[in-house]
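Translate sequence into structure tokens.
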Amino acid sequence: MNPNTDNLIGSGVVFNVEAFFKELAELESKGVPRVHKRIHVSSRCHLNFALHAAVDGLSEEELGTNQIGTTKKGIGPAYSTKAARDGLRVIDLYHKSFEQKLRLLAEGYRKRYGELLKYSVEDEIQRFKVYKEQLRPYIVDAVEYMKVMRENKRSMLVESSQALMLDLDFGSYPFVTATHCSLGGCVQGLALSPFDIKNIVGVVKAYTTRVGSGPFPTEQNGDVGKKLQEIGGEIGVSTGRRRRTGWLDLVVLRYSAAVNHYTSLNLTKLDVLDSFPIIQVAVAYITPEGEKLTSFPADLSLLDKCTVEYVDFQGWQSSTKGARTWSHLPLQAQKYIEFIESLVGVKVVYIGTGQDREDMIFRE
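Result follows.
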């Protein structure tokens, strides 16, 4: 954590208090300065309880072979109670009604799951009696906080999770997360001013990955997929699961650009493709009737019936690792990038060529 930054957990987050204090302790043990003074929590955050995690696991089991592949950390159930207006926010910790509301929430889940629900609401209530005093110094009015930061012309870096295809509205529903992984989600969750946003950089790997269940038209289950996993180090950070891998899908990337209105692209992990003799890029989906789809369909059952139209590229089969200028890229790598630009209609300004933060090509 940069010692010069001030940090805010925004109002759109479902907030796990136990995980918060655990992560702060880890940062402090690593010598990060002034950890407790430089992080703030919106009073409007909804709380993610142990109850939600318990329910998340049961909900996945109910789906059987149609499991979504959640992290089972309670994110979906926490957003569900928020949308149903049964949720409890950080500020509710300091109201007398908190305990009764949590008991009612637990009772509702108990009616559904019965003895399958392994959870004690009274234990959770006791934990939060401690948490609410520990948490008090971190709580802020996030709307006022953001207003002051904007007035002071502070630079802002927004960290979100997942990507557009896991967005609740625009992703591959129902195989999505429970919130909005789009530019609109950032504006909504933090009360950002849309008038302050001048550049929107879309970050995309030079190939495609996915964690969990759901459609993946360009997925490679054979040697190509294994090679992408191994060279790319594709292990999920939260889950420890191997990510599913496949060729770059320009249908998805065009769709993402249409939703998020990118002004430029950051193409990462180009060096992972260095040793592939043939590199494929998806440009369309073909229906059983021969119709060509160039936008990601809402109907996943239709997607299951489609075949993928690819364009094949000769691999460059030489190292791009650590390249810092466009001229240092092999001609075939340049053609690959220029093809992406031509089909998406957005310039690739940044190109990642390795793990070091300096392994980046910047194109004017």
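Note: The two ends are 29 Å apart (CA to CA).
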